[in-house]
UniProtKB/TrEMBL annotation:
SUPFAM superfamilies documented for this protein: HIT/MYND zinc finger-like, Pectin lyase-like
Sequence ranges assigned to domain Right handed beta helix in this UniProt record: 132-238
Designated name of the protein: Right handed beta helix domain-containing protein
InterPro entries: Beta_helix, PbH1, Pectin_lyas_fold, Pectin_lyase_fold/virulence, Znf_RING/FYVE/PHD
Organism for this UniProt entry: Chlamydomonas leiostraca
Coiled coil: none
Amino acid sequence: EPLGAASSGTTTDVATFLKIVRDATTTTPVTLDLGGHTISFEGRVREERLYIDRSFVTITNGTLLLPDMTVLVLRGQGIKLDRLTIKGPGSMPGDYLFEQIGLVSLRARMQNPEPVHITDCSIQLDDDPSPETSGLAISSPAHVVISGCTITGSGKCGLHVSGRACTVTVSDCTVRSCQLAGFLFDARCTAKLQRCVSAKCTHGFVCEGSNVEVGPGCRVEGCTEYGFQCSMEGAMTVGDGCSVKGGEHGFAACGRGSRLTVGAGCKVVRTVFGFWATEGGVLQCGSYCSVERCQMGFDSQSKGSKLTTGDHCSVAHCESGFAAQEGQLTTGRGCWAHKCSQNGFESAGPTALLVTGPENRAVACKEGCFQAFDGGKMTIGDDNLASQGKILVIAQDAPSAITLGSVFWAGDPRLAYGAFYGATIRKADTLKTALGPSAMEGQVMRWQEQQQHAVQLLVGGPQVPPVPPAQPTQARSAAAIAKPAPKLQPPAKPAPVTIPCAYCGAAKPQKQLKKCDGCKAAGARPEQCAFYCSVACEQEHVAAHQPACPATLKAKQEAEAAEEAAQAATSTSAPEQECLLCSRAPAPCGLAHEGVVHMGICEACAEQHTRKRYDRTCPWCRTPAEATVVRV
């Protein structure tokens, strides 16, 4: 039966459903329980917008099937959608060009409306959705609370919130397989998110000129471009422990006036840029943020961009670790770059400035641990460490400059400083090395003479840990992190290599043995040679060694080559040429006409050609002139 204006119950009748939800004059609360059934509006609704105008209506427990070119628009206040599955292909903008279109759209008709609640709903667009239709589109004015929802297959965005008067709270929601962004907030809206996921979209979480707070536990998986992006003078705060896996950019602040603040322990894996500030954007990272297997770790690109990292941030297995490319980059205490294929810390460009905090480390970076080029400036803090790199600290051109702190740790002091083409490096007052004095003292003194300045070698002081500190989630205490690493011992001298005598077997160092004269004359490799402890052993072993001696083998090969050359030179018999017309040999004759001779026919073919009375055309070039027989 049709439900009354103030009643609640179960309905599956389309006419009754439409009658209730289109009543904009009644504000009495009503609940429409679909009882787990499906309501299809195919053939029952012709308009492109199916409006729910009634306020304080609750629709629960069922499925709504929307026809092609039709979307569901919520205009009443206090509407509640609970445990619903909403399916449809979506709609084109049409006359609503400036309206944000969603399969479910919310556009209130009054200021300061009562909040709309959407709970445990699934919004599913067809396999071929409209390219202008989002899953859930919210326009101002609106106050919406969304929790436990799933949006899949949108032709545009999963959740699109637009407008100054929009306030949205989202928790435990997942968006998958959308053509544009999983979550898009623009036009100065306000949003708070908790534990949300954006997967297999073009972008993950995008803030354009809005104020967005992303809580802990949100993540982006498999998106192709941006993970968390803030642009167009927006402000975005990302909570602790958020992550991005795959795509072009992890966390990005784009454009002047845009500010992105990232919490502690956030992680980026397998992207092009990990943490990226560009075009004047400002990016602030918390402590223990990490980047793994990306092209760039922490990158401040273009003039006016600023990127600041917290303490103990890390980059591993990337091309460049911490890079200021015409922007400004400041690192915290204990940051480290490990196994980068290019540079650990780099500053490039006339406006670039990289300032490292104390106890930063660059380990096993192939090109350079700390490098400035193209006019870049770099200030290295105290107790920084560089080890296992081609060059530890280098400035490559005249405008570039590097300033080291008072104490600098070098894995190999000989490679510590390098300046090319007039670049300047203010060297450390104290150079420390983790290796013992017996192994490194002489090298340090020679290096001092080459550099022509005094360097003090301190041994026995606190050692810099050779490995990065653990993150807080690994439950390591502060005392364990601060515990000095064991001192590295000088490498032991290798034992001399001994070789046995080829005759008597007495093992001696190679320098004390005599090489076979034949092997020496033939220039054989050491593993092919025979060594003897004395001339007597060589004379006793000459008969047994001669067949395998490289000199004997070389002489034998030369003799065989000379014999083959002689046989080739004395051979005068040439293979008989076959007739080109009948394939019979020999073919000593040819045909000549107009100064051209074609050789290679036999006597029989030549005789047959001579007997011709009329057609004596050349069989090769088909020249009509008469061809005469030529014999060699």
